[in-house]
Each structure stands twice: as C-alpha cells, then as structure tokens.
Amino acid sequence: MTKPKTPTAASGNRTGLDPSPADANRSEQAASVLAQEPGETLTTNQGLRISDNQNSLRAGARGPTLLEDHILREKIMHFDHERIPERVVHARGAGAHGVFEVYESMRKFTKAGFLQNPKMKTPVFVRFSTVAGSRGSADTARDVRGFSVRFYTGEGNFDLVGNNIPVFFIQDAIKFPDLIHSVKPEPHNEIPQASSAHDTFWDFISLVPETTHVLMWVMSDRAIPRSLQTMEGFGVHTFRFIDEAGKSSFVKFHWKPVLGVHSLVWDEAVKLAGKDADYHRRDLWEAIDQGLHPEWEFGVQIVPEKDEHKFDFDLLDATKLIPESLVPVQIIGKMTLNRNTDNYFAETEQVAFHPGHLVPGIDFSNDPLLQGRLFSYTDTQLSRLGSANFHEIPINRPLAAVDNNQRDGQMRQTLVKGRVSYEPNSLGGGCPMQRPWEQGGFVTHPQAMEGEKIRVRSESFADHFSQAALFWRSQAKWEQDHIVAAFCFELAKVTVAAVRERMVSTLTQVDTALAQRVADGLGMAVPKPPAGAKGVPRTDKPARDPALSMANGRKDSIVGRKVAVLVADGVDGAAIDAVRKALHAGGAAMKLIAPRLGEVKNKAGKMIKVDHSLPTVGSVLFDSVFVPGGKASAEALSADANAVLFVKEAYKHGKTIASSDEGATLIAKAARSAGTPDGEFQGPGVIAASGKAVNDVFTKSLVAAIANHRFAERPDLDSIVA
Ligand code: HDE
C-alpha cells in the first residue's frame, strides 16, 4: 500500500502558532507509543483503528443493529452535533489569511507595535460577510458587507470589525436588536430570506430618521459589490490613536481596494443569486488559489483632539463620516490576502472577532454604538461557540503569549502547570505580572469626564439628513438612477401604503428630486415632509465629496476580471490566442464557452477544449464577452438562444462586448432581438465590427474597456429585453 501524504492540518495547530501546552506535553510521549502516521488510518475519536466503516454491528446478516456498536454511536452522535448556532447577524461569510505591512512608522500618532516597522509582516485573518441572510443565503443580496480584520500582532490580537459602508443605521446600541429584527425574515412566516425588501424593515426605517444616511448607501450599488476584492472597508466608528507619551488623536480607519471599487447592477445581482449563490466567496477563493492575491491599502483620517468640535457633525455619531474633502485619507500600509483556509468551519466559522480586542496605542472613543458592541461580541460567542474558552480555538489564539490566572471551564485546552492561579503571589515568583504602559501594558486613555446619569441623545447627533444629501449630490447620474431604482424596487415590495408614504416623506428631507422620482416610480404623489422637519439643523457643505462616488475610482486594472469567449466549430483559433495573451498579461481570466461541453474544432482543424457549456453559465458570471470570427462558429452561435441571450444581457449590464470578423454577426443578432431601435448595439464598450482583425490595437482597446469595468451610461440599457 502506498503511504498517503500526511495532511498538513493533521497536527491540529494553526500554521505560525505555537502548539498549545497540551499538544506539546503530548508530543513528548507520543513518539514512543504511536502506531501509525497521523492521517493514515481511519480511527475513532479515541484513536481506535477502525476495520469496517461500511457496516454497523448487527445480530446476524439480516438482524437488528446492536446498541453495543460504540463505533457507530460515536460517529452518529458527532454528526448529530455538527451544527452550531449561526451568527445572529453576519452569518454568511468568507475568510482568508494574509499579511499586513505598514509603509512607514506611525510613531508620531500611535505606539501600536504593528504600525511601527515597515519591515514587519503582521499575519491577518479576514472575514467578509453579509448581514441579514442565513449561512446558506446568496452572496449577492442587497446588504451591507462585514469587513472584519484580525491582526495577530506581537502585542495581542487587534480586531478591526468594520463594514464596507462607512456609516451605520443607528446611533445607539440599544436600537440594534430592533433594527435586526426588522430586517430579518418576518417572524410569523420566516419570509423573506436575505432581503430588506419587506414591510417590517421599511416600517422601522421610516420611523427612525437617523437611518437615512446609511440607507442612501444601501440603496446604491455599494450594497451589491462586484467582488469582495473590489469593496472598500471602514472601521465606521471614531477610534483613538495614542502615542508613547499618551497623547490621543481621533482616527477613522479605511481599507481601499487596489483593484478599485466596483459593483454589480441589480438585475445581475438577482440573476447571480440563482446562477451562483457562492459568487463572491468563489471569486475570492479562486483569486487566492491562482496567486492573484487581493490587496487593500490601509488608510487613516486623523483628527487632533483639539479639532474634536470643529465639524458640523459629531465625531462620536456612527451615522456620520468625515468627508475626505475635509480630512484626507492618509494611506499608511497594505494588506495582502495570500492563503485560503484549510477548513471553513475551523477557521471562518469559528473565528470570534471583537471590537474590544485592542492593542496599546489604539483605544475607543465614546461613540455610544461602539460602546454597546463591546458587551455583545463576547456574549454572542458563548452561545455560538459554547464555552468561555473560545479564545483557545486555533484561529482565535493570539500569536502573543497568553498568561493569566483564568482557569478551567468547558472545553479547556490549555494545560497550565503549577499551583499558582492567583495574583498577587509569591509562590510563583509573582508571575504572571502586570506591565505598565512604558513596558507595553495596555492603559485606557484617561479621558476627563463628568455628567449626570441620563438616557438622552446628544443634540449634536440631531442632523440626520445633511450627509444623506451630500451622498446623493456626490453621485454620478447613473449612480443616482440606480439609487432611485433600488428605492422603487424595495418600496414596491412593501404592502402597507402608509409605510411607503412615510418613507418617501423622509426622502423629501434628502432631496426633492429624489423624492419625486421615487414617488413617480411608486405611482404616488409626493407626501408632505415629516412634521417638525423644519426644526432640524442642516448644512449643504461640502457641496460634493468625490470620494463618495464609485465613478471617480480607479479603473486601471483587469486583474481578476473574467472574460467569456463564445465559440462553436469553425471558430477562429488565432483570434482566441491573441486575446488570451493580452488578457493573461493583464491578470484576467478567459473561459471558452460553447453550446456543449467537450471540444470544438477551430477553423484550422485543431481541437480546442471548452471550459463551460452555454446552458450551465450565463453572462452574469463574467465581466465581458468576446465573440471571435469564423463563419461557421458565428452562424451556429447566432442560432443558439443561450448565446444570443448571453450577449444581450452583457450589453444590458454595461459590460464590454467585443467581436472580431464574423463574430459581429452574433452581436448584431443579439442587438436586433434585444429590440434596439436601429438593430445595433452602440455606445461605449462595444468593440464590434465585421472585418475587424485581432491586432494590437484591438486587444489594447479591449483591455482598456474591460478595465473600465462597466459602461453604465449606455443610453438604452433599461429598454433592452434580457
Ligand atoms: Fe456587529 N455583531 N453589532 N456591527 N458585526 C456581530 O458578533 C452588534 C455593528 C460587524 O465576521 C455579532 O461574532 C451590536 C457595527 C461585523 O465574525 C454580534 C451592534 C459594525 C460582524 C454583533 C453592532 C458591525 C459583526 C454576531 C450595535 C460595523 C461579523 C456574531 C451596537 C462597524 C464578524 C459575532 C465576523 C458581528 C453585535 C453594530 C460589524 C451579535 C450589538 C456598527 C463585520 O455580537
């Protein structure tokens, strides 16, 4: 028998982490008693080698199964308990490992060790998530995305548990259960899954005006990202940086994707939920697997303590952002995701983030939303992971040494030796000892405070609309169109007219044109502004903030883009080769799609392997479509309804469409069947002309068009039947 390769995870230790004391203890004895290599033989959980994994123990070949079968009972018992409660929010997630590097020392602002030395590579684990859906829901639901980063620093774990949208729904943690209950499936019938388009969500939202700003983001295409790799990330709350001398500055954290910020369009997101519910996690997994390591730059907006009150909004209010035009984002480092998980459950499911996992040099502000989170995250792990020892699960263990007098509890792994489990002590030489700030100990920033014990919201939190309006004004025309369409879609699913009216009435506070357009879309008159609206403080400064619009982002890369090439027998193989070369040089992938799987014979008689058959994919899974020439191929595809739909949909979704030579026949057929007025697809991003050969000029313009990602300004998109 050939010896199987020992699995890398067999030791049970996370790469880069020391084994737990229990493991170490065990390994001293192990060598002398081990009868087999780990990973080689099927065993019970007690290490008993199993001789028959096909049949349970029974009384005779046709007799009843015996209770005595301890091997069967152990196996089934474990299986029965394989599921743990999913996260109450952010249940669906995808994780990956990577590293973080700071570009230059941030010593001037913070003493955090991982932000000092550009040569240091700090390991990170990242989990992206949707908020509302269950674990099995679709990736492309309209939702905020979680963006949690754990830095395994030498001073302990620092968790930056943020989102892809810089502001939150509510200002005070006490409203969180209400918000989440409203967006989750309605309790009487558990409908709808992973969707905010239902009565209870809009009922709550329309009664809580502080949600208006985030709502503008959630109705924008930010809530349907093209990829996890093309999302920004935000720490949302204001935190503090503390320098060596104890001086504090306020700080907001940002992640800027190197690939730029790109999103789907709604029709595509809906179709993707059916075509590939794992669209985002697959994209992340494949990118890392292929060595196209996703990268984000780390940015900070720093506000000196003395400027705390210089803004029209309160820095402690999580429904507000600091416009980048007021305080630019300084880029200070980079995160690279370079390793997929070995085991989804052990890592992505069991990771337990906590906004209270801080390191010296980073501290909280008094944001009442952040303060409320500090209780929740430990508490939820107790019911989710089942024990106070969840920090001992490998993915949760810090790299930094853990030494304290906490003991025992369910599922305890650490085997601490000795008789001392208290402090102060003399029997243990006083260890483990406290460390002052100067020696790396964590000291809470000593902020002076006074006040009455009261339940009130600060008046400085009262302006709910200025930044919602700033966001609206800062959007490109197509982005505004998509926001209007999203409001119309969501509110049209609301069955109670009074809720729709109340929501549109709130929108009059953001922008009258927005309210008018949404009212038109819903077939209703614009209601009056809410009572008391006039008393609310407002500002229209700044007029615009370019950073809020995706239209102003980077569009210089095709890394990770996926291009579909539609082929049939007789296709022009040389055209495919030339386009493949250009795409691969830029880091994009190309897939050949034919009416059926197997191979097609190209014009020169050579067989080429097909990657997918047309019925099993769809244009929504790709960023662009190329139809090469070859008369027979183009004719066969033009007669194939799936191929025609593929091109029509790609056009409707604003994607680059290219053809060479006779490939233009299919583009023309798709355009005619889409009902375009003059029977042609026109406008930006259509590189289709009969007789056009694949030369450098062609491939360059194709690559530039794909880098642009999408041509949302095509005039006829909404009229395309697809
Ligand atoms: Fe969370 N949130 N949250 N949240 N949150 C959780 O913790 C909570 C909030 C965020 O990938 C839970 O371990 C309260 C803001 C992310 O594992 C829970 C409040 C922001 C994740 C919880 C908030 C977030 C969570 C559920 C109001 C952006 C996923 C499972 C005060 C800055 C973490 C868990 C992961 C997860 C509570 C508000 C982001 C229940 C009470 C604001 C990215 O503890």
Proportion of helical residues: 25-40%
Cα Rg:
29 Å
Number of continuous helical runs: 18
Structural class: alpha/beta
Please summarize the sheet with the most strands.
Answer: 10 strands, antiparallel
The stretches of 5 or more residues where confidence is low (pLDDT under 50) are 1-21
Bound small molecules, by name, code or SMILES, are: CIS-heme D hydroxychlorin gamma-spirolactone 17R, 18S
| Count of β-strands | 18
What is the terminal-to-terminal distance?
A: 56 Å
Mean pLDDT: 94
Query: What share of residues are in beta strands?
Result: 5-15%
Shape category: globular
Question: How would you describe the overall organization of this protein?
Answer:
This protein is an alpha/beta fold. Helices cover 27% and strands 15% of the residues. The protein contains 18 helices and 18 strands. The chain has helices at residues 21-33, 70-80, 176-183, 199-207, 212-218, 266-275, 279-289, 344-349, 368-385, 466-474, 477-492, 497-507, 512-522, 573-586, 631-638, 641-652, 664-674, 696-707, and strands spanning 93-102, 122-130, 145-153, 156-163, 233-234, 239-242, 248-257, 295-304, 330-340, 362-364, 562-566, 589-594, 599-601, 607-609, 612-613, 624-627, 656-659, 686-688. The strands form three sheets. Strands 1, 2, 3, 4, 5, 6, 7, 8, 9 and 10 form a ten-stranded antiparallel beta sheet that branches. Strands 15-12-11-16-17-18 form a six-stranded parallel beta sheet, with helices on both faces. Helix 5 (212-218) runs parallel beside helix 10. The protein is globular and about 90 Å long. 43% of the residues are buried. The model is unreliable at 1-21 (pLDDT under 50). The site of CIS-heme D hydroxychlorin gamma-spirolactone 17R, 18S has 26 residues, from strand 2, strand 3, strand 4 and helix 9.
